[in-house]
Task: structure prediction
Amino acid sequence: MKSAIEWLLGLERVRLDGDSVLSLRFESPPAAWIMLIGAVVAAVLVYRLYRRQRVASRWRWGLMFLRFSVIMTALFMLSRPVIVLQRNEVERSVVAVMIDSSGSMLTTDVPQSQSANGPAKEDVPNGAGRESASRWSAAVQSVFSSQGGLASRLISRHDLDVWTFNSGATRVGRARNASELDELARRIDQSAIVRGATDLASSLLQVMDAGRSTRLAGVVVLSDGRQSANQSVESALAVAEARGVGIYTIAAGSSRARPDVEVSSVWAVSDVFVRDAARVQCQLDLRGVVEALRVMLQLRDKATGQIFAERAADVAGGAMTWRGELLYSADAPGLRTLTVAALPLAGEENVENNEADLTIKAHDATVSVLYVEGDPRFEYRFLKNLLIREATLDSSILLLSATAGFAQEGTRPITRFPQSIDELGRYDVVILGDVDPHGDWISPVQESMLVDFVSNQGGGLAFIAGERHMPQQLRRSKLERLLPARLSPTFDGSYGREMTEPFRLRLTAEGRDSAIFRLADADVSLRDAPMTAGWYWYSTVRGAAPGAVVLATHPSAQAENESMPLVVLGRFGAGRTFYLGSDDAWRWRQYGGEAFHQHFWLQVIRTLARGKRFGAQGGWRIETDRRRYELGSEVQVELLAGDSQEASLPVYPRVVVTDDTGAPIERVELRRVEGSVDRARGSFNAIRTGTLKVEAEDFRSALNQEAPSRLIVVRAVDREMDRREADDEFLMRLAHAGGGRTARLGDDLSEMIDAIPDRSVQIPADIEEAIWDTKFMLILFTLLIGAEWVTRKAMGLA
Result:
């Protein structure tokens, strides 16, 4: 009988047994007063319908009952009745168990018997007899061991939610009993170790977010504590505190530092000339090393393994970093990926961070140079010979004081200064010696051509000081603004006395880093070469122009309370400019032969030629200190104009940083460089990997130029394997801040297990099933309306 009723009512989960506590509710009931009024109205209508029917009173009342029952049954069904089986269930609390699955967990910690230095007792990850177990194996064994494992002891009071984590958390599964726990143990054996950043903060947030709908009693973290992501765990701890969830940490692995050397940073210019000396700067980060040591560095071709340079890096005892450089001279044109490699230290386990790559493109281009000189002074003679002999240069040399009929020299001789933009555009670099810019060799139109050559075409321009004209005669000429130094209003080139005291250049920090002062075939620079001859004469200026870089100064002479600049590198628009405040560079040949002098001028010429040869554009532009960055490092940004007389900075200069999809990452406010109307600087931290675009925002230009931009590449460094010692201090802070406890693998975990609270509760778990659309209601409705119809027919009613 019960089965028949259950079938008629369409009950699948509710059973009509004696222990069931059943009730009825309606999913969409009208208000009680509406139901009452509806019943009264229905009764009145039915009564008025049948009161005048000429039938016996008992049949009239029977028909009225049937009609009223049909209406009320319809109203009953429209209210969507539901049978409710009332019951309660126990909702057990949940403990989330997070097992570190990052690359460092594959480390096998050497026990004391196998270590020359005798590690502490806790270096053995799982107690005695576990010498060959990796941290991952020891952690899994500690959780799923059938003999008193962590999981089997927790399952008696809690459900277990087991996760693995590295850069994020991955759920292995939920276990409510021993059989489900065995299934989780089989799944965990198939979990893969992932090499990459360990982001414990994000993983904790993910686990707690997933447990938001559960009664989370605690989070147990088994890890070596290697938190290589930059994100702080404070946000995760705040969530845990707000929810009253304790963090319980179990440390895996040795906390003893291991010897490790990392090539943490490499950088070089992206474009070089073939056979040119390119400085590949690198930084080494060292850990676990207390005594002085020597690290061998190699610069090699990533594809072929060819070694281009190698050197020994002598690191002082206890030093954490070493910075230096290797010299790369491209032997062929083309794009080449280079690897800076530090040979492994004795006993070093992690060698994956011993290398770093960079890409350099070599150009087998001949640089065209126009050298204009007034008189055949010594600097002219030796520089002219270099320009003629050097195979990588194409030169035109114009000596203005030459007599009529003198055969001008150079690989492409000329007899006058170029008279058209196209003619001047055949050159990459123009060198002006001790010439008078107001002389008849150059007209105002040709001066304008030279300004355009630098600012818009990206050409290079060098000024060599002289006692007669340069640079003092640049005043009131169009070329004055190209000079990367500020002219003295009183100096006319002569000191009124003979200069008899020699001096040697004092290189600035930028000069020591510059390839201009470094020999291509030796790991020394001018600062390391005391044999170089001193200079005597120098030109007096007020200082460097805004935005220019001083590479070398006079050792004692002052310019407005600063050292007198003698070698200055500047920018003007798309091109580069150079100022040499003496004509004594030829004296370097006295002791060092041609090496220093030749290298100096070749590097100056190639530096100036970069703007034109490597595609610099005119107008406004965005510059950054590098093109490639590590995640989290600082990016220096500069917005500058090609011609300060044709454009000026926006009122509030700023740039927007976007990712490769065009989505903005952040906006950076720039600060105007003091004393400059065409230069602003700022910085931001590279917080996202990939190719990022740095673009001027709200940009307007008098040159009708599109907003200038620059692409940079940000890469995430895999620091998971660079430090393999367990970070016990971090795990201890995490547990204490999270209101939990800490222990090590192999310890007695009873105290920790007992400290995790039982948050199980009884909750209503009623079962509901709708009956308004069941077979019973259909049959009932059909019987009622059928009975009325048959009765009416029997009574002869229409």
Observations:
- The first helix runs from residue 2 to 8.
- Residues 112-131, 520-524, 527-531, 642-646 have pLDDT under 50 and may be disordered.
